[in-house]
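Hello forum,

I keep getting stuck at the same step: I have a sequence, I want structure tokens, and every attempt I make locally crashes halfway through. Rather than fight my setup again tonight, could one of you with a working pipeline run this one for me? It's a single chain of 85 residues.
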Amino acid sequence: MIQTITHKGLRLFFEKGSGSKLPAEYLTKIGLILDALDAVSSEEDIIALGAGIHRLTGIMLDSGQSRLAPTIGSYFGMPRVTYSM
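Reply #2:
Ran it on my machine without issues. Output:
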């Protein structure tokens, strides 16, 4: 279940369906990922989704909380969708 989205463009897309702040070529994939993440209830459910789900390390790992992220695109500047349990 998605509780908060900090990126304004992702939040607008998730709440209102407007993808104007996100790259058009990734809107379908981002929509599928957000729908899937909204439906999960455990870390095992997220990993079972596939989609290049990987555990984050380094500076993306804040306050010891486990964070996961699906692979969306490969270019620098793409908003990262992360999920924490």
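The beta strands are 54-55, 67-69, 83-84. If your local run keeps crashing, start a new thread with the error log.
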